[in-house]
Fold Starch-binding associating with outer membrane.
Amino acid sequence: MKLPKYILIFLSVFLGACNPDFVEIDNATAISTANYPNTVDDLEQLLAGVYATQHAAGIFGRAIGPYSTYVLDHTCDLSWQGSPNWIQMGQNNTLPNDAFLRQIWPDLWRGVQRANTLLAGVARVGENASEAALAEIDLIRGQAFFLRAWYYFYLTAFWGETFIVDGAGGEKMGMPIVTETANSLSETQVSRATVKETWDFIIGDLVAATELLDGKSWSSLQDKHKADEWSAKGFLAKVYVFVQDWEAAKVLLNEVISQSNKALVPFDVYRTMFNGEHEFNSESLYELNLNVDITYPGADDRSMGSHIGTMISPTYVSPTTGTASASAWCNVFPHAKNITRFGFDLGHYFPPGTTVANVANVDPNYVVASKKARSEKTVDPRLWVACLQPYVDSMVVNGAKHPISHYLDINEIDMEAWSFRKYINLNGTELEINRSNGSNILWLRLADIYLLYAETLIHTGNNAEALEYINKVKRRAYGVAVDAPSPFDYNSLSDATMASDPALRNDPLKYERWAEFFGEFNWWFDVCRWKMGASEAAYYEKIRGGTIQWADDSDYAQPIPIDELNANPDMIQNPGY
């Protein structure tokens, strides 16, 4: 429950981007920067606009995931072959004129601009506020710092020249640091700070957020989407891990684990919490609040939902032809190598020699073996949380169940062509909800904190406790008690995992992060900070559009969009582009 997003975005755009010199206001009662914001309620309206920008079309309204991280880290392969730039991104040949990055960049900066507009408003309203109002204003200011750091996190993770802040890495190019709302073009033409300066800026905002939100939790339904004490501390701890400040990370992660009262949800809750169920549960530290919007489809900035489900939508067996039918756009599907990485090695649903992807050609022994693997957990159960299996799983279309098919337009009959399951509508198709999926994005949750803590413990010399936190996450996945030893436990930090590739085969920490968060927009940033680009390219080898290419470490940073280079003479392109 929240104010209509399109109203909030209009207000934010008007107030954040317009200057009285640029417009003529004839209506004396109209809102203007001369008298707005003027109250705490005004600040709350602006704050809602800053939150809403997180699911603008260029961010989680559509572009984060299918247009970026899913493609860069090969979470997906491409069914749709009509967009050359999409194929180039999947081959690691992203160009400065890439149409998708040109959506992400401006929307992230729009979020920064709106956060800065809000912070300016906070300063203005706070000048004459009562003591009671100042307490409310401090909570708004804390959220503004959190949100500005959130937008900068993505800007830096996509376009910073490196993640590393120590030594020479810290002197490489980060992001321009902008703390005030621009009122002219020249004020937007800011040069790039260093990587260290950028991460320090993010950390500074999050430290401020943790102080201002200390002790705060939100209980009312209309406020639950807001960042609170544990959102800020969890996010700050994650940033400390990213910049390898292990001691600071260790202290803060331990505090979140021991004092937040958060707990891993049972597996039955976990398996559906990415599909609009169990929102704001005991595991969630911060999630993006989305709602099905029958008026505006997800990719429209006025929408309260997301278009991601439309792009990753499953394909199902047509009841008339027995072949694949689209449930929505059906642009991307899980890369076949991901199915193997979860430990699935049961052959193929079509016998050798099959030439037509038809339900009549499915091997019945395959279906039996697959169901047995699920019940006996000989394959990582998270495979079926993340993906829908052809001819074993089903989906609902106009109230009727239909089997999942070999993915639409995949002519390679011998390829594993499954469908995505996270962040889709399990009760129908995306078209039935106006291509505006209302599943909340679980952006930071306790499983992430556990695995970040395990990583921190490894780097600070406590391998035994690190292994225990890795096993806690794995135990939940296998449906057993989280805090007690189980037959599914890893026995060492180099124990065998379900993966067979050299990168993850004997690395439980990396495998658990990959498997636990598959389809949750995280893996590309882990690949970058762990410098796994070359080994990941070697494992995935190719996408349907061609061979994956990896040159050197300059490939981790994406190209600054050409629009920004043309508009800002002080902007320097990343090396290699």
